[in-house]
Each structure stands twice: as structure tokens, then as C-alpha cells.
Amino acid sequence: MSKSSNGRLPRLEDVAELAGVSHQTVSRVINNHPNVSKATREKVEAAIAELGYRRNTAARSLVTRRSQTIGVLASELSQYGPANTLLGVEQAARDAGYFVSIAALRSVGRGAIFDALRHFTDQSVDGIAVLVPHSETLQILEEFNPGVPVVAVGSLGNEAVSGAMVDQKRGAELAVGHLIEQGHRTIGHVAGPGDWIDGALRAEGWRAALKDAGLPQEILHEGDWSAGSGYEIGRRLAADRTATALFVGNDQMALGLLRAFNEAGVRVPDDVSVVGFDDQPESGYFTPPLTTVRQDFEELGRRCMDIMLKEIEAGAAVSSTVVTPVLVRRASTAQPAAGSR
Amino acid sequence: MSKSSNGRLPRLEDVAELAGVSHQTVSRVINNHPNVSKATREKVEAAIAELGYRRNTAARSLVTRRSQTIGVLASELSQYGPANTLLGVEQAARDAGYFVSIAALRSVGRGAIFDALRHFTDQSVDGIAVLVPHSETLQILEEFNPGVPVVAVGSLGNEAVSGAMVDQKRGAELAVGHLIEQGHRTIGHVAGPGDWIDGALRAEGWRAALKDAGLPQEILHEGDWSAGSGYEIGRRLAADRTATALFVGNDQMALGLLRAFNEAGVRVPDDVSVVGFDDQPESGYFTPPLTTVRQDFEELGRRCMDIMLKEIEAGAAVSSTVVTPVLVRRASTAQPAAGSR
DNA sequence: ACAACAATTGTGAGCGCTAACAAATGCAAA
DNA sequence: TTTGCATTTGTTAGCGCTCACAATTGTTGT
């Protein structure tokens, strides 16, 4: 940080003096106003470089009431999905020249969400991305009008709030469709928590796909996304072998399931087929390598920022975008054994 | 956001008017200055509540040159370690009443790091946490004096920069010591990239532990932390079975290794023992469940903020802290088969 | 040449807050 | 009462920037 001779950081006035122009002209240069002559602009730029001038963001946002900052409200950041979505949003925001302020929620509730949103409005953020994958989030967001664009990532949004999401139902249909194609007729689901949007939507997609195919939709277990919960459910499933195939809500629970089956001597895919969801980088190295549904979280983040920027810069209306997931076939699925129903 | 009747957000002056005091008295109340009478304080607080007043952070930080914000400079956020350290730092910062601004580096280099640091000084952050696990980082940080405390997470720091790290060498010794105890005499290492601090330190710890025990330190392969690289190395290792045990730089590479061994018919732990590093939540559900070294990333984040806050608030000197890792014994290690050397 | 207009540059005010100082008040001791 | 001192409150200035407007310059057509 270069200091001017008087020990202070240089400000607009100092640059103006050195360049022999008014402070306002300097302001025009740094804000790329069109009506500045080339000669003046060069003089000013030289002075800026010489002094190592940097604009004071506090002063700027005091008067403009904007801060070139996007607030990201996130929860469950230790999970693969939210963490990578954050990454995607952050990258897209920086590419667009915005800073990112983050607030991680420890618990999801009206109070905590309001606090975080207020914190963002205090900072005069230009937009807010909400990465809170719980169903009640959207409702809560509706009640709070921060005066800047809000994009709810992982939901479709509504009239007041934009949305960016992966088509979870489509993903579930992809997974279940694949199993049906293989010849499976009894396909269970290991769901994520019902109060997560994704969890609910995947379960819905599973149910719909089975219904369309005229198959029963009885076998449903709810986990908490963790490998541990997948393991517990896997033990129960190993004991009650009604299903010949399982669609699991995420790859981590699938890993737990695989572990439980392995311990119980249930072979995958010979005895039971398993499909996961997410396609984490490790999923191809499970035993056996996991067939799963890939969601592109970075793309999701980029789309979120696309929408946000359009709202911020072009004053576009609230809208939404959907990212399509893709089935990744690996070794955890196969045709059901001839003997099974 | 409640607006005053004139359509503007309320400011200090509005509160002062309503409470019948001067704006400075209101300022004293919101900053908890001691010399305010109880009666006045209550009047002011009532006015604040009535108007829904919120302090303008831009105005405040314009004059104070502080922003109640911690900048977190991070890279490799898609990795388990950095992501969870970020989480730890964020939580500790919020607990202490600080906001968190984040900059994710796409590539690690002097230019990118300087840009990010300048961005933080532009924002008048009160402190900077650096989560960039590459060896050259510390050097680069030395050259840039942002004028606020800097804590390099994942390194020991130096005279200019504080550090908070997990004792990687100790962790490596824990892992290797465990294998030696089991009776292994030929212990290989699958290292992370040499330009990562952690990767280098773990390799060093592995070498030191073997040297102390008078054992050879020849078998060393370098991966890139990914399960894929672990798999590739695992295939080579399955073909050349010199080592009876492997210490692997992280759990993901260990997963790849396990997969390769499984495919090649090498049994773990019967034929080869494997120890990982990190203890990710999934590691207990690998096939077989992985013996590994646990690092507590959230604790790391907390310690980082402890140091930072002491520097910010008490003007404490640059210092450093070390978190001790713990060995988690599971099923991937056993005594070497009787026949092996 | 001049007026008419566009392009460029400058001036003054004020965003909302805190720091430094000044003034007013309360209360105990002389 | 009066002085002296601590406690509480008020006043003024200014942080560094952008906005709205005013003033100046350059350019063109007649």
C-alpha cells in the first residue's frame, strides 16, 4: 500500500492535484465516463499509477448505496452440493467484477435468515444469492424485501424471488428410468430429509417415474444425506430384500448402503442395483463404481449469477433457470438376477 | 426495511430527533459508550426500535477505516480440507461479530494473490485469513503488508504473518507409527502434490518416522489428492508388491487405491495395509473402513480467529497455533501376512 | 465573423457517521 | 453558598466520494 508523503493514503483530490485537473474529472476517469478527452484521461491515469491510488469503497458506497458486492446466504456448507454451488457463485460473481460476502447459517429458521439478510442490506449488497436448500426458505424470503435482486439457488423461485435449480425430478426419472430399462420392477428409494427441497423433489420424481411405469412405490426410507444414515438403512434393506434396485438420494448415502450390503454379503450389482445422485468426484471409485446422476454445481452458480446480473444491471424481471442433470452409468447397476421377481 | 415517512431509511439524525437528543448521543448509545445515563439510553433505544433504525456501515467505515469484516482468501475450495476450514473460520468470525468476505483463487500466483489482498484492503477489512495451502504462499504474503493482521491457515507463519495449522508431521508419525507397531517393515507413501504445504509435510513426517525406526524410505509416489490419481498409483502398486503397508496423503487418494487393489485382487488389509489422512465423514464407510488421521478443520478455523481477534482487538503480536491430529483405527490396517518379508 | 450547440471540465453540496472538543449538568467538599 | 471535579450531553468538522449543475472550451453552419 503506497502512502503519500503526508502519511495518508492518496485520495481523489491528490490525484487531481498531480494531474492538474479537478477531482471530478478524476472521478470520471475511474468510472469510465465517456466525456473525457484522451489527453486528460492519460494524464489522470498516469497520476493514478504514480500515486498507487485506489478508490475508497466505503466513500463510494456511502453515496451510491451500492457496494459491488453480492451477498451469499448459505447453509450446510460442509455438504458437497452447497459447497460447490457456493464455489460456482463465487467464481461467476468475481468474473462479473463483484465481491462476495458470505453468511453461513448454522440453523435454518426465520430469525436466522432475517438476521443474515439484514446484515446484507446493511452492507448495501447489490444482490443476494440464497443457498439454503430447505423447503421453507422460499416462503421466508417472500416476507423479506431487501430492495435488491434475490436469487434462490436450488429452487424455482416465485413471483418475488428468482430461482436457479437443477431439475431434480428429471434427475430422479433418469435414475429410475435406467433401472426400469434394466428390467427392475421393484425399485426402492433412499430419500434425503423431506424438508430439503432436493430431497422432496427426488422422492417425487421417483414416485412419478414408478407410477408412469405402473410399478409399486412402497419402499421408501428417509436418511439425512450422511453415509452413516445410508449404512443404517442399508442394513435394514439387506435384511428385507424385496427391492431389486435402489435409487439413493445422494452419493454419500449410497456409499453407506454399499458398505452395509458388502458386510451383509449382498452383492452389488448382482443381487441389488444401486443408483446415486450428485456424481461426486469419488463416486467412480466406490466398490463398485457408482452409477449416479450428475449435477453441475458450478453451472448452477453461473446461471444464478446470470439471472442476478440481468436483474441488477438491466433491471430485468424476476425469472428462473433450470440446469439439466445427466445420468452417469457405471458398475453399480445391472439386470436383476433371473431368479428374482 | 422500514422507511421513514419521507421515503428515506432513517439515520442517526432521525433517531435523535425522535428521542429528543443530539445525534452524537445516539451514536454513543449504539456504540455502547459508558457515559450515557440510563434514562437517555432507554429513550434512544425506544426511538431506534420505533424507526427500525440500522447503522449505515459505509458511513461508519468511511470514518473509522474499519469494517467489522474479515477477508478470507481461499483456493481449492472444492477440496474437503479447505472447504471445511473456510466453514470453521466463517463460524468463528460470525461468533465474534465479524462479517466475512471471500475471495476464491482460481490459480495460485503472486499476481492473483496480490489482487485479492488489495481487494480486501479496498474494503477496509479488519483482518485477513489466508487459506491457500501452497508452499509459496507465505513468501508472497511477506511481501504484501496490508496494514491489518494476517493469519496464514495451514502454515506456521513467520515474523510478519501469524499461522494456524494442523501438525502434519505429527499426523504422519501417528500413521506410520501405527503401521510399524503392527509389524510392517516396508511402508510406502502416496504423497499429495509437493507444492502443497500439507503434502510436503506429510511426506517429511513419513520419512522421519521411518528413519527413526531404521526402515527404508524408498517407496514414494506423488498424486494430486484426487481419487483418480490414487487409483492410477494403486494400479502400479498392485503390480509391484514390495510394500506391505501404504500411508496415503489423504482419504480420497486412499479410496482410489482401495479401488485399484480391489480390482487387482489385492486384499486390504490382509495383503496390504492402508492408512489415509483427513478422516472425511465417508472414510468409515469405504471398503474396508479406512484407518486414517483425523484433522479437526473447524477447530483450525476457530484457532485462526482466536489469533486474529487477539491481534485486532488487543494489538497482540504475530503468533501461531498448532492443532494436534488424532489416529482413527478402522479396518484397513492389520499385521502383515506371515509370509511377507 | 458570429451564433448555436456539443463536448469537456469545474464547483458546491451532501451521503451518514464518528472524533475531538466544548458546554452544560450534577454532586460533593470547603 | 461557592468552588472543583466528574459525568453527561451538544456542536463542529470532515472522512472520500458522486451527483447535479455551472462554467468553460471546441466545433460547426450560416
Can you offer a commentary on this structure?
Two copies of one chain form a homodimer. By secondary structure, chain A is an alpha/beta fold. Chain A has three domains: 12-55, 434 Repressor (Amino-terminal Domain) (Orthogonal Bundle); 64-165 and 297-323, Rossmann fold (3-Layer(aba) Sandwich), CATH 3.40.50; 168-295, Response regulator (Rossmann fold). Helix content of chain A is 44%, strand content 16%. In chain A, the strands form three sheets. The first copy, chain A, has a six-stranded parallel sheet with strand order 2-1-3-4-5-11, with helices on both faces. Chain A is elongated and about 90 Å long. The N and C termini of chain A lie far apart (74 Å). At the A-B interface, helix 4, helix 5, strand 2, helix 6 and helix 10 of A face helix 4, helix 5, strand 2, helix 6 and helix 10 of B. Strand 2 of chain A pairs antiparallel with strand 2 (99-105) of chain B, so a sheet runs across the interface. Chain A binds a DNA duplex (30 and 30 nucleotides) through helix 2 and helix 4.
Number of strands of chain A: 12
- Mean of the pLDDT scores of chain A? 92
Strand-residue fraction of chain A? Answer: 15-25%
Poorly predicted runs of 5 or more residues of chain A: none
The name of the CATH topology of the largest domain in chain A is Rossmann fold
Shape of chain A: elongated
Oligomer: homodimer
Biggest interface, which chains?
A-B, 54 and 54 residues
SSE ordering of chain A? HHHHEHEHEHEEHEHEHEHEEHEE
Straight-line N-to-C gap of chain A: 74 Å
Biggest sheet features of chain A: 6 strands, parallel
Q: Structural class of the secondary structure composition of chain A?
A: alpha/beta
Strand order of the largest sheet of chain A: 2-1-3-4-5-11
CATH superfamily of the largest domain in chain A: Response regulator
Helix content of chain A: 40-55%
